[in-house]
Amino acid sequence: LTRLLGARPGVLAVMGLEAAALGECEITRLLQDKLQYEMRLQYMKHYFPLDYTVQVQYEEVLRPSNITRLRNGTVSEAALRYLWFHVSSQALLRIRQVLPEKHPSWKYTQELCRLFDALGREYGAYRQTDVDVVVADLVAQVHSAGTERRGKAVRPKALLDNCLKVMQMLFSQPCECRGP
Q: For residue 157, which of 3, 45, 74, 78 is within the disulfide window of CB 3.0 to 4.6 Å?
């Protein structure tokens, strides 16, 4: 993930900007296409054993209700998108950690990782000191993961379901994302 954070500064104006950058919108549209229900169902449920879960930290599960709570706490939309990026890319890495290269879902998750790499380049201008304190703390917790801190078993499909739902919440207005 350090690759994702250190790339191409200056692409996105820092925190005062509430609208999403053009590159950010295009990448999230591509992500939305890759996260279609049928694909999530096939690659994240059918290709895994029944009731299979991935161990994650509590902070690595970002639901729409979390976003609503943070919005009510006056966290900026740009900071929420920054948080979504970090939590979602970390969740994707957790899924990839359990997949052998020959797993049928490997290529699918690799394509998602490429899109998150591209999105990471868009977020290269952000520094944790520029975002709301609440978001900076959550991002730090997500990236300070040791196995001793993991505390939740989540199905891979549920992680990607949350990724898509939150993405649609955060990007629907600035990017005019399509519905589910």
A: 45
CB atoms closer than 10 angstroms to residue 74: 8
Q: Which residues, listed in sequence order, are joined to residue 54 by a DSSP beta bridge?
A: 154
Model confidence pLDDT, tens digit, residues 150-171: 588 999 999 999 999 999 999 9
16-171 CATH choice from 1.20.1250.80, 3.20.20.30, 3.40.50.300, 1.10.260.40 = 1.20.1250.80
Domain spans in the chain, listed from the N-terminal domain onward? 16-171
d(CA 170, CA 76): 11
- Shortest CA distance to 139 belongs to which of 84, 63, 180, 100? 84
